[in-house]
Write a structure and sequence with these properties.
With about 325 residues, the protein is α+β, with helices and mostly antiparallel strands. It has 4 domains: about 100 residues; about 80 residues, Arc Repressor Mutant, subunit A (Orthogonal Bundle), CATH 1.10.10; about 35 residues, no CATH class; about 100 residues. It contains 13 helices and 11 strands. A 3-stranded antiparallel beta sheet has the order 3-5-4. The chain has a 3-stranded antiparallel beta sheet with strand order 6-8-7. Strands 9-11-10 form a 3-stranded antiparallel beta sheet. A hairpin with a 5-residue loop joins strand 1 and strand 2. The longest helix is centred in the N-terminal third of the chain and has 23 residues. The chain starts with 16 loop residues before the first helix and ends with a strand. The N terminus is likely disordered.
């Protein structure tokens, strides 16, 4: 549905940036519907395989992994709306689409962020609404057949259904704009969904320590006839180390070198520091590689099958150079070890 203000209101149901990139690649190679659906099916199967590896158990691939017609249609709608694909009978990449495919990963994220914010009013609405709330977070029920989502979301000022919210959340988390921390309540699974970015207009720039001429580095969008820029939150390495150590000790009840789940510790630290999973992974790699104060060691193993299955792709930890998942983390000071 076209918005009366600008752009489009509803986001197509494309929850992973990888699907968008696969579809664009299929178009660049000479678009064929069957080939595009095959590429998307291969990606879905690859995701399922990674889940199986992390769980340490075989899992038969479901037939629905091969059914990607609707996903292809949603990818086409999204790519057309944001100006990366043109044509009807014969699809081809626009000049912008060609440039986008050739960009480095960070530049792709910035470009896609800018596109989504300027084209989809629901994407902008969710981020701007959460940004104005205390602690820039919402706590919402996230489960299947959820009849109370709208009831819980409305007091926050959110005017979207659960599916739209989840698509925004999933894409924004991959773009380092948003993250979420699962919590169990008496009403079932809830999520603390929080921003991992700063949204600033020209009046805020100085308070963020950014010079006006630096604004060009950040994705820009228009909201309520005002210019805004968006920047992922960055934390100092030393502050991150200290927070990681504090949260690790809480998780182990103050027993150094005791293994804790990587994904659980990451979730706790990211929530406390308001950072993305990507930022956590980057800093922990740096500590594991070399640090003067702390010793951080990763080890393999298997994720419990029941652990956070609703967002297992997000919960997957990074891999070692040998391709093994870092399931556990053990930490100590170098003086203590």
């Amino acid at each position: 549905m076209k918005s009366l203000e600008r752009g489009y209101k509803y986001l197509p149901t494309v929850r992973r940036v990888e699907y968008l990139l696969d579809f664009l690649q299929a178009v660049s190679e000479g678009y064929d519907r069957e080939r595009a659906e095959q590429k998307l099916a291969e990606r879905k199967t690859a995701f399922e395989l990674e889940k199986s590896k992390a769980l340490g158990r075989g899992r038969p691939f479901m037939k629905k992994l091969k059914k990607t017609k609707r996903l292809r249609e949603h990818c086409l709608t999204l790519c057309t709306h944001i100006g990366f694909v043109k044509g009807k009978e014969r699809l081809e990449l626009t000049d912008e689409g060609k440039v986008f495919l050739g960009l480095e990963e960070m530049e792709q994220r910035n470009t896609l962020t800018r596109k989504l914010l300027n084209v989809y009013t629901s994407f902008t609405h969710v981020l701007m609404t959460i940004s104005k709330l205390p602690q820039a977070e919402v706590v919402l029920p996230m489960k299947k057949n959820n009849v109370i989502f709208v009831q819980k979301a409305t007091p926050y000022g959110l005017k979207v259904g659960q599916t739209t919210f989840e698509v925004v959340r999933d894409l924004a988390s991959q773009l380092d704009l948003m993250n979420w921390h699962p919590v169990e309540t008496g009403e079932g699974r809830y999520e603390k969904v929080f921003l991992t970015c700063k949204i600033m207009n020209r009046g805020h720039v100085d308070s963020f320590g950014i010079h006006q001429r630096e604004l060009g580095k950040f994705p820009k969008f228009i909201y309520d006839n005002q210019e805004f820029w968006i920047r992922p939150i960055q934390v100092a390495y030393e502050k991150f180390k200290q927070t990681l150590w504090e949260e690790y000790l809480k998780a182990t009840k103050y027993v150094p070198r005791k293994p804790v789940f990587y994904s659980k510790l990451r979730s706790e630290v990211c929530y406390k520091m308001r950072i993305s999973d990507r930022a956590f992974d980057c800093h922990t790699r740096q500590i594991m590689k070399s640090d003067k104060v702390y010793r951080l060691v990763g080890s393999g193993g298997n994720l419990p099958y029941s652990r956070d299955m609703a967002s297992l792709l997000k919960s997957l930890p990074p891999k070692t150079e040998r391709g093994e998942y870092i399931i556990y983390l053990k930490m100590d000071t170098k003086e203590g070890s």
